[in-house]
Design a protein that fits this description.
heterodimer, A: mainly alpha, B: mainly alpha
Chain lengths: ~350, ~325
């Protein structure tokens, strides 16, 4: 009897924890999976998130400036003051865009030492074409700032109220009492000798003009970017799926390059430091030659007959005897995927 | 957790841009604190100008000197300069001057940020300008009453409202000056960086690898130096307590250390990434790597002597 009882209890105890093991991890892994899936989705939309972050930053910066720093002087210096607040941050954002774009440094590094690298025979315009692309990429942040600032209205209002040009004054002060022509610059502070209603009307009309200009800027900028993207895709010599693969390849190559740089750099420095401290001769450490580095650093150019996904790919498959071929064309869209 | 690591890695990749951003934020925060807590314009004709200028310029000078102190290149250049028996430090006069200019330009960034943020705030300039006779002449034209009341304007104590309104003009001038300074500085920075990159004899990817190599070398130098120092110390103390003859522990000589501490010189014939690399690969044992034919000073390679932003604190 005892023997018969024992096995079922053992089996029962053996079965229970197994059942527990099956239920507990599945709910936990499903939440972790969902979380990971969500995170992966967000990381895939890196560009969209990056641009939205930039937009939020510009919006925040503009709010900060108008609340904290901007106070229209209500004098003859209105125009200069308003224009400085509108355009100086835009200029700074443009230059920062140049600084943070890796392609500009890839383009400029070593160009004075070897101008033939930047202006190869028969492809002199390539430098300006790439420079134009970099400028267009860097113009996104300044345009965002300008549209946000114009939608706010205070900067434009201050700048326009300081105008001395007869044509603009006629346009703004049409149908208003004659004090408008002389005292327009005091409108932002509400200190004109006109009635408060008139004052407010003028302020509102200036703000309305500013907001209309802001919306026009947003519309034209988005339309222009759509048209240029369509044009670029239209002229692309590569199919849609291959282009998607290309972008993925470029990203992966960038990651792998960073990892191998780190790897080789630690091995080389380890070897050097060991030899220094132990006072030994170093063993040979194979590294790419000067010419190989130069060849790998060139800006990518698409070749119709060969399927190379990057300059590194080209260098590795062609060996080191590279010379620019006659029928090379510059790839429009892979460049915008920002390789390194 | 790997996804968080990826995000963190993205931030660390742009660490130099982030550190400049951090310095700017710190300067801006410091300026806000100063102008709201510490600064109180004296509103007197004799003291406004010096008070405002001191608050504007003295912190800038302090930040400039701090920039020199925190730069590893300064100490690399100066260490052992005046010791008897050593030849002129930093090589020839022209090279030393070029290196000095480079270090000064890097140290000038923080003070310029301070001045720009202070001008955008407006309080210091308002105080200084209201005490200056030049501005009194320009703003007040011929009104004697205005000129007398101008120094009281930053405290809001001017008699007539018209004179008090001049405060807004002063603030506007200060802010426009601040924006112009920011725009000019950033344009000059871009042009200078583009020109140095242009003159670089080394390609883009190799420069990137070079920076990573130097960081790794610094890290491994620290760990290896700690290890080596521990072994050497243990050996010495053991021999001291056991009163036995210490065996010759192999440690680099003073001459070796001097050789690798020299300022880096680029030679287009070789591909050496640091003085240590050059020294380890020298042809003969007694060969000096401090200078050889074909050595050139390349502005873009200034980072070789000062890898990382906390190199002085660690070294």
């Amino acid at each position: 009897m005892k023997k018969e009882l024992a096995p079922p209890s053992a089996a029962a105890t053996a079965a229970v924890p197994q059942r527990k093991k099956k239920d507990f991890p599945s709910s936990r892994t499903s939440t972790m999976d969902a979380f990971q899936g969500l995170l992966k989705f967000f990381l895939n939309q890196k560009t969209a998130i990056g641009y939205s972050f930039m937009a939020l930053l510009t919006l925040g910066g503009e709010r900060l400036f108008s609340l904290v720093a901007f106070k229209c002087p209500c004098s003859a210096e209105n125009t200069v003051y308003g224009l400085a607040f509108l355009f100086a941050p835009a200029w700074v954002l443009l230059i920062l865009g140049f600084f943070l774009n890796n392609r500009s440094w890839r383009l400029f590094t070593g160009c004075c030492v070897n101008p033939r690298k930047i202006f190869p025979r028969g492809h002199g315009c390539r430098f300006f074409y790439v420079l134009g692309q970099i400028t267009l990429n860097s113009l996104v942040a300044p345009v965002m700032w300008l549209s946000v600032a114009l939608l706010n209205g205070t900067f434009y209002e201050c700048a326009m109220s300081g105008t001395k040009s007869a044509g603009l004054l006629d346009l703004i002060c049409k149908g208003k009492p004659k004090e408008c022509w002389e005292e327009l610059h005091k409108v932002s502070c509400g200190k004109t000798s006109m009635t408060p209603t008139d004052n407010e009307e003028l302020q509102l009309s200036l703000q309305a003009q500013s907001q209309i200009l802001g919306w026009c800027l947003i519309c034209s900028a988005s339309f222009f970017s759509l048209v240029s993207t369509c044009y670029g895709r239209c002229r692309s010599k590569v199919s849609y799926l291959q282009m998607t693969f290309w972008k993925t390849y470029v990203e992966k190559e960038k990651e792998q390059l960073e990892n191998s740089f780190l790897d080789y750099a630690s091995k080389l420095s380890m070897r050097n430091l060991k030899c220094f401290f132990e006072n030994k001769r170093p063993e040979a450490f194979p590294m790419p030659s000067f010419a190989a580095w130069e060849a790998a650093s060139e800006l990518y150019s698409f070749h119709q007959t060969r399927q190379h996904y990057s300059t590194l790919h080209k260098v590795v498959e062609d060996g080191l005897d590279l010379c620019p071929e006659e029928d090379e064309t510059t790839m429009v869209l892979v460049g915008t995927a920002e390789p390194l | 957790m790997e996804k968080f690591q990826t995000v963190l890695d993205q931030f660390l990749k742009h660490h130099s841009a982030l550190s400049y951003g951090l310095v700017t934020l710190l300067t801006a925060g410091g300026e806000r604190i100063f102008s709201s807590v510490v600064f109180a314009c004296p509103c007197s004709a004799a003291w406004n100008l010096p008070y405002g200028l001191v608050f504007l310029l003295v912190p800038a000078l302090a930040l400039f000197l701090l920039g020199y102190v925190l730069s590893a290149r300064t100490w690399r250049l100066l260490t052992g300069c005046c010791a008897p028996g050593t030849r002129a430090c930093g090589g020839s006069g022209l090279r030393g001057l070029l290196v000095c200019t480079h270090v000064s330009a890097a140290a000038a960034l923080a003070p310029l940020t301070w001045v720009a943020v202070a001008l955008l705030g407006g309080a210091f300039y308002e105080c200084a300008a209201s005490g200056s006779p030049f501005f009194a002449e320009r703003l007040c034209r011929d009104s004697e009453e205005c000129k007398a009341q101008l120094p009281l304007v930053p405290c809001g104590q001017a008699g007539s409202a018209k004179v008090q309104d001049l405060l807004k003009e002063l603030k506007a001038q200060s802010q426009v000056l601040g924006w112009v300074l920011i725009a000019v500085v950033i344009t000059v920075l871009l042009v200078f960086t583009a020109v140095t990159r242009c003159l670089s004899p080394v390609s883009f990817l190799q420069l990137k690898f070079w920076k990573i190599y130097l960081e790794q070398e610094q890290q491994i130098l620290k760990t290896q130096a700690t290890e080596h120092a521990t072994e050497l110390a243990k050996e010495n103390i053991k021999c001291f307590f056991e009163c036995s003859r210490s065996k010759e522990h192999c440690t680099p000589s003073m001459k070796d250390w001097q050789q690798i501490s020299a300022l880096y010189k680029f030679n287009p014939k070789d591909q050496y990434y640091s003085m240590l690399h050059k020294y380890v690969n020298r042809r003969e044992k007694s060969h000096s790597v401090k200078s050889s034919e074909g050595d050139a000073f390349v502005p873009i390679l200034g980072f070789v002597d000062s890898p990382g932003i906390t190199s002085v604190a660690e070294l």
